[in-house]
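Lab notebook: predicted structure, single chain.

Context: the supervisor wants predicted structures on file for every construct in the current expression panel, including those that have not yet been purified. This is the next one on the list. No modifications to the sequence; it matches the entry in the shared construct table.
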Amino acid sequence: MFLQETKANGVTQQKCCSLWGTNKIGWLHLEGVNGGGCLLSMWYEDAFSYESHIMGKGFIAVFGKNRVSNLSCVIVNVYAACNLRDKKTLWEELSSVKRAYQDKVWCLCGDFNAVRSQCERKGIRVRDDQAKEIEGFNSFIDTNALLDLPLVGKKFT
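Prediction complete. Output recorded below exactly as produced.
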C-alpha cells in the first residue's frame, strides 16, 4: 500500500499496523518538508519479502521478492513536486536507479503531478512550460519501458 501526502511525522509500527489491520507488515516512511510530500510504503510480509530500499526526494523504492512466485521486484512509491525542475530531477533519478537494476520487475505507483496529453488538463490551455512537461513525462515513460495502465472508473485518477 502506498500513501502520498500523508502529512504524518513520527510514523510508528503501531500506526502502520492499525492502518493495515495486522502486525505482519513492513513499512518505510519518507518525511517531506513541513509535512508536505510525505510518503508511506507498506507491505504484507506473508506476500512480499523485503530486501532493501532506496529513498530519494519524492520516492521510496522497495526491493524484494514476491513470496509466491519468488520474482524479484522493485515497487516504487512516488510523489512528485509541482515544479518542472524538480520533476525532471525525479525522473532522472528514477531512470538512473532503474538502469542499475534492470534485471528486476518494476512497478511505479503514486502521483507524478504530470499529465501525458493536453486533454488531461481539464479546463485550461496548455502553456509552453506545460507542453515541455508533457513531452518530458512521456519521454520518461518511454525511455524506461513503462506501461501506463488504463484505469477503470474516473477519467482523472
